Amino acid sequence: LRVNQEEVPENCSSIQDEEQDADISKHRQKIAENKDQMRTNVIQEIMNTERVYIKHLKDICEGYIRQCRKHTGMFTTAQLSTIFGNIEDIYKFQRKFLKDLEKQYNKEEPHLSEIGSCFLQHVQGFAIYSEYCNNHPSACIELSKLMKQGKYRHFFEACRLLQQMIDIAIDGFLLTPVQKICKYPLQLAELLKYTTQDHSDYNNIKAAYEAMKNVACLINERKRRLESIDKIARWQVSIVDWEGPDVLARSSELIHSAELTKISKQGKSQQRTFFLFDHQL
């Protein structure tokens, strides 16, 4: 800012332009560096949570399942199948996924890591979470029944201490796969935010985000449909002297139910309750 100066040197304007250009260049460089740092943070967060998750799965399989199988007097095969579902398959899958993720991780410059392709390569494998998530409510019911007895509470606590697991109850450990499959789209969305369009991993990250979002949606949709089928089955059983074929033979979802009035030709009216399903009324 020039104050009370009659004459302005001729080269002053060009010096100011050069300084301004240098400032813009520095500012852009700072933004780029900041974005690289943010991308590094997100990549490291993904890697760290993945390693912690594998540790949780290992603890469940080796700390709980292995011990439970030794005590045949306390647990039947059916009970263990209900409580733990297909978590051993998930553990096996996640170990392979982490191994491939580690190969794509750039330790020296984490922001240059290209992990998008790893998600795309394994996207079909994540479908095994569907079975686990659908089974999870039954696992909670079975577990809560057992936990009413002191011997089971003490047994699970002894398993936890023997495996040197963190201080979380068994139901907390069994919830981790459900939380994990929902967390992937959030992590990838965050990574996409700090991945510039000219980054070699941009397109793969974008595709991986959409794919993992679809996996989570598909699992939620299957879960919702199973709950709907269960609801219809319970509803039909509650009706005395049910006649005709099962509703589930044709339909899988109740859309609406309401009271209607039937009026005969003679003018008599009768109350009726109608149920509209996805394929029949």
UniProtKB/TrEMBL annotation:
Is-annotated flag, keyword Cytoplasm?
Answer: yes
Q: Name one Pfam family in it.
A: RhoGEF
Family annotation (InterPro entries): DBL_dom_sf (IPR035899), DH_dom (IPR000219), PH-like_dom_sf (IPR011993)
Gene Ontology CC annotations of this record = cytoplasm
Q: Where is this region: Disordered?
A: 1-23
Keywords, sorted A to Z: Cytoplasm, Guanine-nucleotide releasing factor
Q: Please name the GO terms that the record assigns under molecular function.
A: guanyl-nucleotide exchange factor activity
Which cellular compartments is it found in? Cytoplasm
DH domain ranges (all copies):
38-222
Keyword Cytoplasm attributed: yes
Specify the protein name: SPT13 protein
Organism, scientific name: Nyctibius grandis (Great potoo)
